[in-house]
Amino acid sequence: MNVEYTGRHYEVTPAVRKEVETGLAKIRKILGDKFEAHVVLSVEKHRHKAEITISPRNGPLVGLAQARDMMIAVSEALDHLEKQAVKYKTRWQSKKRSARKTEEVKKWNGHSLQDDGSSAQAKVGLTEKTAVPVAVHRYPPMAKTTEVHLVRSDEAVAMRPMTLEEAIKEAHFRDRDVFVFRDPKGKVMILHRTRDGKMELIEAP
To answer: Domain containing 51 — which CATH number?
Structure first.
């Protein structure tokens, strides 16, 4: 596993390196994937900040944290990154299960037979002479409906203008799939995480 370190007003110590690599090893067990990692450690006004970015196949994951001590900041950033990794893996597995279930539904609804109408002709009988034609009807799968549950939240809205890069980091930090913010010019922007884990930018008119 390749880990790149960047220190800003901070010298990366062996103890911090060991803490980072131990945490990343746990995350690698969760994702079961080879990825590169970039660790940025900085000190600003006695605040120690840790930013850890990993790059699995379907988009980057970022863990951000700040504390009075760098070891605490690194530990919290790794915890946040581990939660994202679990969510990433769950989303990936559910997507694979959904695709497999769709294929099974298609088979059960006669898609493996000739698709030329609402029913298909099949013959039932011991021999070809005694066989009787039977109409086999195909029905579309029932669509699942869920009750709408609304929860008001201001966690998905930025209170101050920010750049696109800052908004992406903030969305990762808050662990939000939808994040609304204004760019420095005051234009409303919406970040949306798609099902495959990629970030999509929507510009409001």
So the answer is: 3.30.160.100
Residues 84 and 152 in one domain: no
Residue 193, domain extent? 148-205
> What's the average model confidence in pLDDT over 135-162?
64
Q: Which residues are CB-neighbours of 27 under 8 A, at least 6 positions away?
A: 54, 78, 81, 82, 85
pLDDT of residue 43: 93
pLDDT in tens, 22-61: 999 888 888 876 788 999 999 988 899 999 998 887 778 8
Q: Which residue, 118, 100, 97, is CA-closest to 109?
A: 118
CA distances from 134 to 121, 138, 141, 149 (A): 6, 13, 22, 46
The reply to whether 176 falls in a domain is: yes
- The number of distinct structural domains making up the chain is 2
Where does the chain have alpha helices with state H?
A: 14-31, 70-108, 164-174
pTM: 0.47
